[in-house]
From TrEMBL:
It is an enzyme of class 1 (oxidoreductase). Residues 3-283 form the Dihydroorotate dehydrogenase catalytic domain. Its EC number is 1.3.-.-. This is Dihydroorotate dehydrogenase. It comes from Acidilobus saccharovorans (strain DSM 16705 / JCM 18335 / VKM B-2471 / 345-15).
Length: 301
């Protein structure tokens, strides 16, 4: 089966990547993911200056997934440069996730990423638990357009906008594409929280966090389906991908590639190979000759 795919200007050997942030807090984690068989490596989000993590606990594991509120902790631009030097030996495209509060923040980090050898940048317009960053930007089509435009006019490598769930998701997607995004990542974690019934306090140190895992997969499928049906963009589908069936569902909804996040933690690094093989077996069973034949098949019915 031909699993090769061109998405957002990137030539990939197969459609299975990792999602930003999961196991990517350290260089060792990034290297481990990069060696797991992913077709490209997506880094954790970097901001212009270093950010410290939120108070513990930062991650809670649930039956249906996980809640996390790390706070976009990262080593800033200098740490990005150091990490990129170490990741260069992986021999696969590196997609650098970028975050900030202002358009110029995103552009500054993206420029450093390009200089350091990134194949593309993914703009984090969807982190659900950091004020004035992430989803606060991605819910506003006007602000999203400004951020994407600032980055697209600064770098030559592909720009990917990572969007979360909002009432204006399709409108924001359209604005991002018109501003120069070559593709979209849909979706990020979903804003959520849990209460400790004995301490009578929020279970996460920050209170509100992002829900990931199987619980959000149907939401991700809906998001990909709606955006693909309206705009036909290049999409990286993300949200609760733990088995090949999850990946196939997102591809049939309109995604050209999929990102695995909490599945890496819940099932281990071998999940990348399992999903890749499952997609190939499914294609053979259903008679699909190439991955592109599958993309959006459900939305075209």
């Amino acid at each position: 089966m031909n699993l090769e795919v061109r998405v957002a200007g990137l030539e990939l050997q197969h459609p299975v990547l990792n999602a930003s942030g999961i196991m990517g807090e350290s260089l060792d984690g990034l290297l481990a993911i990069g060696r797991s068989g992913v077709s490209a490596l997506v880094t954790k989000s970097y901001t212009p200056s270093p950010r410290q993590p939120y108070p513990m606990p930062r991650v809670i594991h649930l039956d249906m997934g996980s809640l996390n509120a790390v706070g976009l902790a990262n080593p800033g631009i200098e740490g990005l440069r150091d990490h990129m030097r170490a990741l260069a030996g992986l021999g696969i495209p590196i997609i650098v996730s970028v975050a900030g509060s202002l358009p110029e923040d995103f552009a500054k980090v993206a420029a450093v990423a390009e200089e350091a050898g990134a194949a593309a940048v993914e703009l984090n317009l969807s982190c659900p638990h950091v004020e004035k960053m992430g989803l606060d930007i991605g819910m506003d089509p006007v602000m999203s357009r400004k951020v994407v435009s600032a980055v697209a006019s600064t770098v030559k490598i592909p720009v990917i906008a990572k969007l979360g769930i909002s009432d204006k998701m399709v409108e924001t997607a359209e604005a991002s594409l018109e501003a120069g995004a070559k593709g979209l990542t849909l979706i990020n974690t979903v804003r959520a929280m849990r209460i400790d019934v004995y301490s009578l306090r929020p279970a996460l140190g920050h209170g509100i966090g992002g829900l990931s895992g199987p619980a959000i997969h149907p939401i991700a499928v809906r998001a990909v389906y709606e955006v693909y049906r309206e705009l036909r963009p290049d999409i990286f589908g993300a949200g609760g991908v733990e088995r090949w069936e999850d990946a196939v569902e997102l591809i049939l909804a309109g995604a050209k590639a999929v990102q695995v996040g909490s599945g890496l933690v819940r099932r281990g690094l071998q999940v990348i190979g399992e999903i890749k093989r499952g997609i190939a077996d499914y294609m053979n069973y259903m008679g699909f000759k190439s991955l592109t034949d599958m993309v959006g098949a459900a939305a075209r019915q």
